[in-house]
Model the fold of this input.
Amino acid sequence: MTSAVDALAAGPVFGLPLPELWFALVFAILGTFLFLDGFDFGAGAIFATLREDAAREAVLSAIGPFWDGNEVWLVVFGGALFAAFPSVYAGLFSRHYLLMFGILGALILRGLAPEMYEQRHDERWQRWWGRSFVAGSVLAPFLLGAFAGNWLVGSPRSLTLVGVVTGVTVTALTVVSGAAFLRLKARDALPETVTQIGVGAVAAYLLAVVVTLGVLATRLPAGVDALLSLPVLALVAASVALGVGYAVALRRGANVAALAAAAGLTYGLTAVVAVLMYPRIDPATGATVSDAVVSTLPLNLMSIGAALLLPLIATYFAVLYSAFSGPISAEEAY
Done:
């Protein structure tokens, strides 16, 4: 153990110093959560557009084995932020505790509603819990986006223009992922309108990105110059290309490619936030990554722990998704 700690302390890992590596890891985990639980949120939003019971049952069957496991990444994100940057964790959650309670409430509603929906086949009962499922699925990504937007600009308030436009952007992105996932898992059990919703959602997402960047240009200290940096321009250009590729793939029934494009859009959005924020990690206080990171010894020990635990978590998800691979059966759909 001592030699491993000494090795980590001796120099950077993968070309990055450990504080920067943990900064990148925190945002990579956040992107993973937004993608994996994002297609669950998107499926819940699309649920609102479906009128036939069979189509609604197909949506619930498609996400049923995955949604609770996908939420693990939110816990991992919070744990990584707390472990490596405890002062940032404390500051963010104390400044935005109302948003945190709202996110938790939306996640609880999103998780409880499908279970209750299946308990009774009463029209009024299912209408109420169906609406609750949609509300939780839309509110959760919107509030998460608001949290990320406020974090980026260092706002101490929960309700801001940046938060609203970022929340709309993230919500549209989850519908993009949700449409691709449902097309992959449910296929003929769902109407063709799901494809149209996905194409419309990716157009809405790209428009929302432009609006969000425009608002950020008036809120970030560096203004327009921050948005004209090469990494940000490259990420935005890649997002446009991925958005076009997504629409083409979804229309052609290349659902795996569409879902991969949705993943690229999600990680790209997370990367834009990280690039705009760095080297700060708490813009509200001006704390940089180096200022906020824990001391060397615990950072090294946590790095060893992460190197052991993250592959185990990834293995769990590989087993989960392989066990429930392929489209849902006719029995599950109906």
In short: Residues 1-10 have pLDDT under 50 and may be disordered. DSSP finds 16 helices and two strands in the chain.
